[in-house]
Amino acid sequence: MVAVKIDTPSSLSLSSTIHPNSSNYSLNGETNDASSASSLWTNVIVSIILTFMIVGTVIGNALVCIAVFMVRKLQTPSNFLIVSLAVSDLFVALFVMPLALLYEITQRWQLGNELCDAWTSLDVLLCTASILNLCMISVDRYLVITRPLQYAMKRTPRRIALLITVVWLLSALISIPPLFGWKKVRKSLECGYSQELGYQIYATVLAFYLPCTIMITVYYRIWKVSDRISKAEAKSKVGSLETPAPYNNRPKTSSDSGDMHLYPNGSLRTSNADGDDGALEILPKNRREKRRFTIKSFLLKRNKIYSSKEKKATKTLGVIMGGFIACWLPFFILAVVRPVCLTLELKCHVPQLVNSIFLWLGYFNSFMNPLIYARFNREFRTPFREILCCRCRGINIRLRTESYAEQFGPDPTLQATQRCSLRIPNESTVRYNSQGQTLVHVGNGSTASDGESKL
After folding, report:
1. What is the pLDDT of residue 27?
2. A cellular component term (GO) from this record (predicted)?
3. b/e map of 58-83 (b: 16 or more CB within 10 Å)?
4. What is the structure's pLDDT at 63?
């Protein structure tokens, strides 16, 4: 006699009973073994991936904090906001992600209700602080670009510290209410955020939707201003190429040996009747005029470098903001939908896999921020490389030398002691020393100073 029993449509239990041998056969054990093996390998793969993300988040955000602490040129008011962002992301990786990984693997909470409340509140606190720090960084960048002079006077370290304090206090005000009863009773062995509809509206609006709206608006205005500045710079560059700059309205001069032309860079070019064309760099008699021209050139170059840095910072901010929206928007949509369904008693079934993906996608934003700085911001990328290679000693000197070489040339010592050097057709060299004296090195090895030879 064979008896077949079907428990549920989704599970098949097959038991066979043969009376002569009184033996039982079951396929249920084989199915459970296969399912357990598959679940085990799934848990192992998920654990490896999420552990890598946790470790990467810790290392990346720790690098940001160490770099700003060690490198003096990174110790700016705007980077203090970045450090606050890195600290919040670092704490997410240290105190929130490990317990989230444990809960993800076991699918049950066995650490007690008190620790559950503390963990969820800390989760909300740190993630909200990360989001609000991003919002403050975007507002700071907007004011730097649109009101550089007015904002520079107010952008002191003390005021930036005050802004950071406001960010963390506001985050605390969003995360604390469930500890005082603004929540629904949870089931046993479950741990999650408060599903009270009023609290979720309060928390999601202040923690995400309002900051996200501010960031989108601010970045759109930053893009408009940057686009307008770029177009103005392009027009001025074209105009400067088409119109030569006058140099104190000095006319051309002539001599018996040929024509001499004085150029704005202080060069005297002569052409004689024999067809020889020689160029000689000279120091103008009025050194104030040369100094004025040099300062103007330096300021133009410095402004160009500053504008390039602002464009890179704006691009970095755009990538960060795009990543932030992509990572957190699905989670916060689900955070509002779930309590609405519970309150209205709607049958809204969200698979646990979707819940997990959206939650860890939000955590991934903390992993991604340092990578964005390393990829798009050279001021952070170079210190990251030096720190990872354990070359922390003398890091400020090396970075300062690289910055100087980028702006003024590859040899700062030579640039400081020797203002100009050129070769004349007759193998004589004109040099200006650090005191501004003219030294002429003739081909036979003799030297003539300002007192001996006037060019």
Report:
1. 45
2. plasma membrane
3. bebbbbbbebbebbeebeebebbbbb
4. 94
Is this prediction's pTM over 0.70?
A: no
Instruction: Find out whether 89 and 151 touch, Cβ atoms under 8 Å.
Output: no
**Pick from 33, 68, 21: nearest CA to 399:** 68
Please give the Cα distance from 152 to 249 (Å, whole number).
38
The pLDDT, as a whole number, for residue 68 is: 93
Residue listed under structure tokens 């296969």: 34
**How open is the CA angle 186-188-194, to the nearest 5 degrees?**
20
The per-residue pLDDT for 51 is: 96
Q: Hey, how many other C-beta atoms are within 10 angstroms of the C-beta on 171?
A: 23
407 neighbors 301 (Cβ within 8 angstroms): yes
For residue 205, the model assigns a pLDDT of: 95
- Token readout for 455 is 């060019």
Q: What's the CATH code, domain 44-214+321-414?
A: 1.20.1070.10
423 close to 431: Cβ distance less than 8 angstroms: no
Question: Cα separations (Å) of 223 from 77, 208, 216, 316, 319?
Answer: 22, 22, 11, 12, 13
Give the pLDDT means over successive 10-residue stretches in the chain (455 positions): 39 36 46 70 91 96 93 89 95 95 90 91 95 92 86 88 95 93 80 89 95 92 81 66 49 45 46 47 46 49 53 74 91 91 83 91 93 81 87 81 67 47 47 52 49 41
Q: Are 415 and 409 in contact (CB under 8 A)?
A: yes
The ranges assigned to domains in the chain are 1-33, 44-214+321-414, 418-455
Structure tokens at 64: 């940001």
Round to the nearest angstrom and report the end-to-end CA distance of the chain: 122
> Distance (Å, rounded) from C-alpha 326 to C-alpha 329?
6
